[in-house]
Amino acid sequence: VQHDRRTNPRAKANPLSALTFIWTVPIFWEGYKKDLLVDDLFKPLKEHTSSYLGNKLEKAWEGELKRCKGKKKNPSFLRCIVKVFGPKIMLLAIVAFISEIGLRIAQPLLLGGLISFFTPGSKMTLNEAYIWALGVVLCSGFNVLFMHPYMMAVMHIGMKTRVAACSLVYRKALRLSKVSLGQTTVGQIVNLLSNDVNRFDIAFIFLQYLWIGPLQTCIVTYLMWLQVGPAAVIGLVTLFIFIPLQAWLGKKSSSLRMKTAIRTDERVRLMNEIINGIQVIKMYTWEKPFSYLVSLARRKEIGVIKKSSYIRGVMMSYIVFHTRAAIFFTILSHVLFGNGITAEKVFVLTSFYNTLRQTMTVFFPQGIQQVAECLISVKRLQKFLLYEESTVASPRDEKVNGKVNLENNGIANLLYTHITNNFEKSGIVAKNACAKWQPDATDYCLNNISCEVVPGQLTVVIGPVGSGKTSFFHALLQELPLSSGSISIAGTISYASQEPWLFHGSVRQNILFGEPYIKEKYRKVVKVCALRTDFEQLPYGDKTIVGERGISLSGGQRARINLARAVYKETDIYLLDDPLSAVDTHVGKHLFEDCIQGYLRHKSVILITHQLQYLEHVDQIILLESGSLKAKGTYYELQNSGLDFTKLLTIKEEEPEEAKEISSNRKLGSRQSSMNSVNSSIYDDSFSQNPIEVGEEMSKGSVKAAVYKHYCVSGGGCCLAIFVLFMFILSQAFASGGDYWITFWVNLEEHVYVNGVYNATITANNPSSASYPFIVSRDICIYVYSGLTVLTILATLFRSFLFFLMCMTASVNLHDHMFTSISRATMWFFNNNSSGRILNRFSKDMGAIDELLPVAMMDVLQIGITLLAIIIVVASINVWLLIPTVCVGILFYFLRLFYIATSRSVKRLEGVTRSPVFSHLNASLQGLTTIRAFNAQEILVKEFDNHQDLHSSAWFLFIGTSRSFGFWLDVVCLIYICFVTLSFLFLGGSSFGGNVGLAISQAIGLTGMFQWGMRQSTELENQMTSVERVLEYSRLESEPPLESPPDKKPRTTWPEEGKLQFLNTHLRYSPTDPWVLKNLNFVIQPKEKVGIVGRTGAGKSSLISALFRLSEIDGSILIDGIDCASVGLHELRSKISIIPQEPVLFSGTMRKNLDPFDEHNDEVLWNALDEVELRDVVNELSNGLQAQISEGGANLSVGQRQLVCLARAIIRNNKILVLDEATANVDPQTDFFIQDTKGKRNENINTWTRQCW
After folding, report:
1. Where does it mainly reside (predicted)?
2. Which of 200, 467, 641, 917 has CB atoms 3.0–4.6 Å from 161's, for a disulfide?
3. Residues 1225 and 1189 in one domain
4. Rounded Cα gap, residues 50 and 197, in angstroms
């Protein structure tokens, strides 16, 4: 991915450039001129490449596992993280100490020295005052210089930990045993990679404050005691009394986080199933029950998020009133103890409290909460890393020569072995092998299997549905651990799975799958797998990109590419799991004769098939039934043994003679045609044009005002939004009023009162008293101050609750609109957008809207209004200070413009480069058996690392640019502090000490806060891109209406007969594509049984798409004289039953899978199961109809899933029944039985079978 990327500018930066972030300037310039694209990203730094970090952490984890094995202890993932990243963190602690303990504590003392210059009767000279002022400014300066590179380093470590953890999780996912896969779900693993590991990015920022906070508190307490004595303790108690409450809220928040994670897992899992099975859901008209399930899952999730949001609201309200309450109690108690107050004391205290507030009430509790949440994520990761692994020999294991058959505790640890030079025969020997999928299951899925396969021998495994054929292969591949007995394998293995698995890439990449490209061999394999014609049909030959799950190909093409991958790999033993079922008879014959019997004739081949016509030509037949070996031998041996093997064969003999004749002619023709010039352009490496992928939508430019408006409207309307804003302004007015009142009071104390009592005669002679508009007694000062403080607390809490309520409402509505839009989207949308991309909207983007967006928005509102208040307060003290304020404001505005252009593209790039990471994980988990059989783990880990590196490159750019922005903003703030501090000395005149203190302490407060506010405003805009992305998916092109208008509703009994007419029907998959079906005209009379045949890719499935109106149609299709286009989709689709090509089941109960609307009673369902002979299977599952079906129906065999689909069709009992190669994955007996059921039940039913020829 990165061979042609530019070197990262950080790699070449000198120390000064790194310290002041000058290395980011060219990036900003580039981002300002144009929107940055994926091609503009740099190479990742070596220290954060995924493979390097993954190896480092994996080594530590393996060391930890070894260490704990002997001691019978639980391994700790946390210990590994500390081991790998701890030393760096220790180093950063020193920087944090200098900044937080040294500089932050010195600044208030220096400020006190400066204020004392303005106290009446001060003996300080002007020069001394300048030295104090310089000290104040330098403290801020050094802090800026230390803090930003420190934060950059901390975020970099957080990122490295995340990357390492992701790499480790992916490697582990490739090693999960089938049992472990049953315990976890794809949704859960995606959640680990999308949400849990992100905790590292946040937790490390706050980690140091866990020890800095308490240390700083002790030092500050001592210094404040020197100022105001015991009153300091009362103030501190006020400050810290909230900390246990915050800690409790933090703990509550992390337990809610755990609950949220579980509920989000559940919702993402459900979405994953829906997206993967969307076509079936549409054809069955099941959108409503699934919408209900999603809304239920979402309600549960939001219920928890709401609670944690309110907690967050309370925590964020503290920022406004916490320090103010502490200062209030300190001053109040100090005055009540009978002491006077001076400006110096008040503002030194205020500065100390501000320092403590940031450390102890923002970072410390946040640190506890984030570190606690991070530890929960570490636990979740650790639990995942400790799942049982598959016994499949990893490609890194030592390859052993000679035959290996290790037995320990009755479990055979199988290792692949190469054939040694003395030509020891390759092959497989199984002795009394027993195995079961669940360790606690009572029944064995393989029982006492003994057989032998020798080189050059073709062995066929046959047996009814669910007899354990695929389990036998899984045992050979070591996916299924043996309980007893042994299997010895000499030689290497290649495998073609029953359900074709294709990953996102070109057809050629899918066939080569990491093997070197040898032109002649490749052509030969393509020829024997009957793929040449397909390559000619595909738009870019074998360079055509196939989507995830191979969406743009027909079932037969996918099966043959899957087979070609297995055949291309040069090995000794080939396991082929039913490759002939998805292809038509001619192609099947070609595959059997040219590929299995021809190309692989010198190899050991084991073939699972239901095509019994080939049995006469094989060397050995193994017949399995209910997991036991019923018989083995040649065709004639078995025939003579008189087993009910013959029952399986009866169907074969009924095959009409003509079919055989056609196939023999076809064989001749196909041989001749394949002799013709092979030098076709389809293999040309210089294909004129490379395929264009449908990229992920990436919006450009700033987030439009309409998006904000839409968010506010979703949150409860504009009136509520305006009221919330008013509450924010009101609470800030109370808070700033309190600040101003304390200054007013201090000035009264210093200039008007004598010993705390108002004295009129002295006041008359005091010139400064004239500058007061009104003078009140000390008691009134106390009452007003108390009133303002209480009002601040109440108003702040109220506005927080209101604000989060609004955000949650918006969250719910946005999710619901997007889900409705997705469930109504056309099939074209799903075929052109990978499930990872759609899931990203539901997991990552919804997560951001639920949890991150409200916080960023609240920060922006809170800080924006506080800024306004500070400017008003400072201007009221000295109007001339408005001039530097305006200049700084303009400078900030331009800096922000410059930053936000780049930041926005970088943040979007980060989102777009994250999707492939999820898609890759998703695809890998679906093809796990194939990947392991091909020993392709390393290639896939490399590919995953490439995706991660691309994301890391974008993320590093993101943290680099945002830190750089913060640094330069703070430099501007520093200049502003300089102006404000020195202005009082330059301008001279008789300033009040209280005014000087207020102005300088507010300006210092400005630094950190202003750059945080600016960054949060860009963060808000970044998070709003999530809203934008969700809104994009809320406006998808929708299918026609589900229900017809009342005047056009068809009769309830329609269709009475089931007569089908196609009139000039055309179909295409998108408006820009060519027509796939062209001018079809035919009629199917009622009760007719019609077979639709045609070569793979001829448009048979497209015909079904037309009938169900899954794509754009021109012309008309009539059912009983009514044009389908005039009928609502639900009314149309609910009247047609379908048994799809790939049986899709959903997790949930068996009952929900058969009848999600609960329209029928149990008796009807049992009868249907009886008819498909699944009653016994369902009875054996615990809870019968209420038995849980696992994700994708994994706890049933493919054939059984097909029968469940047949049972669904029986229950619906419609006039039109469509079978889309429904019997492809079942044995002949079941096939015969399906046809029979169809025949018996369908006396009055129009049946439409799509079969290959």
Report:
1. membrane
2. 200
3. yes
4. 14
Same domain, 266 and 183: yes
- What does the alpha-carbon distance between residue 542 and residue 532 come to, in Å, rounded to a whole number? 9
Matching residue, tokens 């230390």:
146
Lookup: tokens for 925 = 């988990």
Q: Which residue ranges in the chain fall short of pLDDT 70?
A: 1-3, 392-426, 547-552, 642-702, 753-774, 988-991, 1007-1008, 1222-1230, 1233-1234, 1238-1253
User: Residue 229 corresponds to which amino acid?
Assistant: G
- The CB density around residue 445, as the number of other CB atoms within 10 Å, is 22
For residue 676, being part of any structural domain is answered with no
What is the CA angle 335-340-342, rounded to 5? 115
Say how far apart CA 1154 and CA 1141 lie, in whole Å.
17
pLDDT at residue 602 in the model: 85
Helices 1228-1241 and 1198-1212: crossing angle, nearest 10°?
0
Specify whether 1142 is located in the same domain as 1107.
no
In angstroms, rounded to a whole number, what is the distance separating the alpha carbons of residues 392 and 933?
8
Short-list 1012, 1006, 712, 725, CA closest to 859: 1012
* Structure confidence at residue 419 (pLDDT): 36
Answer positive or negative: Cα dihedral of 712, 716, 722, 723: negative
Residues 1147 and 1076 in one domain: no
Q: Name the 3-class secondary structure at 1032.
A: helix
Contacts for 1169-1175 with beta carbons within 8 Å, 24 or more apart? Answer: 1169/1207, 1171/1207, 1171/1210, 1171/1237, 1171/1241, 1172/1203, 1172/1204, 1172/1206, 1172/1207, 1172/1210, 1172/1234, 1172/1237, 1173/1203, 1173/1233, 1174/1200, 1174/1203, 1174/1204, 1174/1207
Strand boundaries in 703-768, DSSP class E = 753-754, 757-758
Domain count along the chain: 4
The pLDDT of residue 1190 is 81
The reply to whether 1113 and 1139 lie within a common domain is no
Concatenate the DSSP letters of all residues of 569-586 into one string.
S--SEEEEESTTTTS-HH
For residue 733, what pLDDT is reported? Answer: 93
Tokens 């990262």 belong to 8
**CATH of residue 1191:** 3.40.50.300
Same domain for 212 and 288? yes
Instruction: Count Cβ atoms below 10 Å from residue 260 Cβ, excluding itself.
Output: 23
Beta strands in 1006-1075 (DSSP E): 1060-1068
CA distance 20 to 146: 10
Q: Where are the alpha helices (DSSP H) in 208-277?
A: 209-228, 231-276
705-721 burial, b at 16+ Cβ within 10 Å, e below that, comes to eebbebbbebbbeeebb
- Tokens matching residue 1227: 């044995």
In this structure, what CATH number is given to the domain that contains residue 293? 1.20.1560.10
Cβ(1247)–Cβ(1219) below 8 Å: yes
Other C-beta atoms closer than 10 Å to the C-beta of 113 total: 18
Task: State the residue range of the domain holding 16.
Answer: 9-387+717-753+776-1034
Residue 404 maps to a domain: no
Residue type, 215: L
Judging by beta carbons within 10 Å of its beta carbon (0-12, 13-18, 19+), is residue 506 exposed, middle or buried? middle
Report the distance separating Cα 16 and Cα 1014, nearest Å.
Answer: 25
Helix, strand, coil: what percent of the chain each, to 5?
65, 10, 25
Task: Say what the pLDDT of residue 677 is.
Answer: 33
* 0.90 exceeded by pTM: no
Catalogue the E-assigned strands of 613-738.
620-625, 628-633
Q: Are residues 1236 and 1114 in the same domain?
A: no
Of the residues 969, 1004, 1034, the one at which a domain ends: 1034
Would you give the end-to-end CA distance of the chain in angstroms? Answer: 42
Domain end: 580, 606, 626, which one?
626
Torsion sign (Cα): 610, 611, 613, 618: negative
Tokens linked to 875: 């201007």
